[in-house]
Amino acid sequence: MQLIIAVMLMFAVLTGFAGCSGSEDQARQAVLKAQEAELKAEQAEAAANRARAAAQQAQIAADRAQKAVEDAAREINRVAEHLDRIDQAQGASD
Predict the structure, then answer these.
(1) Domain ranges (residues) in the chain
(2) Which three-class secondary structure state does DSSP give residue 38?
(3) Which of 1, 27, 70, 75 sits a CA distance of 20 to 30 A from 21?
C-alpha cells in the first residue's frame, strides 16, 4: 500500500512538472506495475498463510498418529504381559 502511495505521488510530480503525455504514460504504467506488484505480494502472503495452516494441520495429524502408535504399543505390551501370566500360571499348575 505504501508503495502505491509513493508511486502515485511520483505520478503527481511527473505530471505536474513534465506536462508531456509520454511521461504521464510512463507514470501510469509505473502505477499499474506497482499495483500488480502489491497484488502479487498479497497473493504470496495468502499462499504462505495457507501453507502455514496446512503445516499446522499436518503437525496435529502427526501428533495424533504418534499417540495412536503409543496407545497401540501399550495395549500390545499389556496383552503380552497378560499372556505371560497365563503361561506362568499354567506352567505352575502342571
Answers:
(1) 2-93
(2) helix
(3) 1
Q: Give the separation between CA 23 and CA 5, rounded to whole angstroms.
A: 18
Q: What is the DSSP string of 22-72?
A: HHHHHHHHHHHHHHHHHHHHHHHHHHHHHHHHHHHHHHHHHHHHHHHHHHH
Grid coordinates representing 77 are: 505390551
Task: Render pLDDT for 17-56 as a digit per residue (tens, 0 to 9).
Answer: 555 567 888 888 999 999 999 999 999 999 999 999 999 9
pLDDT band at 6 (very low <50, low <70, confident <90, very high): low
Nine-digit cell string for 94: 502342571
| Nine cell digits for residue 44 | 504470496
Angle between helices 2-18 and 21-93 (to 10 degrees): 170
- From CA 52, how far away is CA 39, in angstroms rounded? 20
The DSSP code for 1 is -
pTM of the predicted model over 0.70? no
